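Quick look at the format.
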Amino acid sequence: MLVGTASRCPVTVTKWLRSMNFRMSRRRRIFEGKAKVLFEGPEPGTLVQYFKDDASAPNNQKKGIVTGKGVLNNRISEYLMTKLNDIGVPTHFMRRLNMREQLIRQLDIIPIQIVVRNVAAGSFAKRLGIPEGTALPRSIVEFYYKQADLNNPMVSEEHITAFGWANPYELDEIMSHTLRVNDYMSGLFLGIGLRLVDFKMEFGRIWDHDEMRIVLADEMTPDNCRLWDIKTNEKMDKDRFVEDLGKVEEAYQEVARRLGILPEGLNPTGDNTPTNNITSINER
């Protein structure tokens, strides 16, 4: 964010920007998903992750725009990924670049989505006929094969190892990280009056000097975490969009506010169309 430059002449502003090393560079688009775009990073082994305002229901049954969601998700994911790094869970997050972009490590993504369930909700509640909101006797971990054209079918550890998506050692690492993330984030959200109902994660491989490590990928936001207010059970996540509950933007803002990362006066809006331009100065 440029502050205090409105009254400066164009030449002065240009010199000031140059002195701050504010460079715009063209980057190659690597992949575009439902809520994010990945661009080639400034250095080998890095990518730039751009957060969009797009929202969708499972299997793209419903699509829309939630104004400012990308800005908030960028901040929330930065905060949570940094916290997880601090407790020893390796993540792909390196640093936030600006309001909608962050620099991440390029990984060899394992094509398995891990879902951790603490409370019955969504497809789990419907599939097993359990009333939504029922606390589970213990946290349940599920695996889904990431293939959108197959509707991401549920699979077992036997499927994963038999088809070579991950080996037993990698699965052990994934489970260890998964349980650690669930334990830590459940406590973190409990401390701000939110219940972590369930959440989705992805992992990938990275090599450091011929040593392979399993690293947490993707994002940690209300897009992939079900969060309910502890006192009211009000939903504070993407389900507000999926279930037409309204006040989607307000829910995301409230999560950011409770985490203490919504700056005073921040208007989390912006152009929803990603560009190939990447700034090298932080927009605080």
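Next, a different chain entirely:
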Amino acid sequence: MKKVIIGASAILALACCGAFYLPGGSVEQMAVMGLHPQTGAPQRLVVLAPSLVETLFVIGAGSQIRGVSSLCHYPDAAKKLPAVGGFYDPNYEAILSLHPDLVLLLPEVPDQRAQLQKLGIPSLTLEQHSLAGLVSSFLILGNLCHREAQGVFWAAQYRDWLALIRQRTRVLPKVKTLLVLGRDYSRNPVSSVYAVGRGEIYDELLIVAGGRNAVTAPDPKYPQLGVEGMLALDPDVIIELVPESDGPAKPPAELLKAWAPLTGLRAVRTHRVMVLTGDYLTIPGPRLINTLQALGKALHPEMDWNLPGVPDAR
């Protein structure tokens, strides 16, 4: 494989002219993109995605962050940092006031990159919507922030965890699963849901955990399904992932009751609807391994889901 080495001085030069995007690729392709800063690591980072904030903290670069999205609730140190608006609607005046030397963002909101370019603010877009992209982000941010050893450690740790789980689940039956990431929680019974489609990171997690996605269409990535759509899929298991900080103020047992009237669904009749709660469940950052364990325990409770070195999600 041909190696590509990109220096941080080139990255920042490109960013100052506009914005630089590191597309998702294989782990090997991204790992060789060594961002070794020639003029020092950035010390005034503004980070517009909770997953990137968590990644920076886990590699020991939290002290280099000056501002975060208002959706950042973890770790505790991130809550003390100035908030610069939401994930989809950042406050650009607040960002400017922090005098960032680099803004980190995800590719899901391309308008942000264009707006930052207009304001002359350097930005770097990293992809974390695939397992390969997540592993690569440890390496890229480790190099960028002069935390190379920590970045390599976490990338290797994730590779080892994923390999171990794949080895354990390869002989297990692949459970047909509807994975739900959102719905109108005020409606009872459930009338429609936003499900995980094919090709995104949660689809990958489901496969690694020993499941198979009940959604078969490649697009959209997160389809909205009504009751008829769910009946047509008729999954063996339904797993609903519900964040705590920005989700409904209802306990899991109450959320589960909304599914009970849908007896046309096999998962309801066999009592295989599960509601999992926790902010980490819907953030594709370092705690994604905890999400994988939670999914695995729901699908295959008979399997040992203990992994060496996995930190507590909360």
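Residues 173-299 form a domain with the Rossmann fold fold (CATH 3.40.50.1980).

See the schema section for token definitions.
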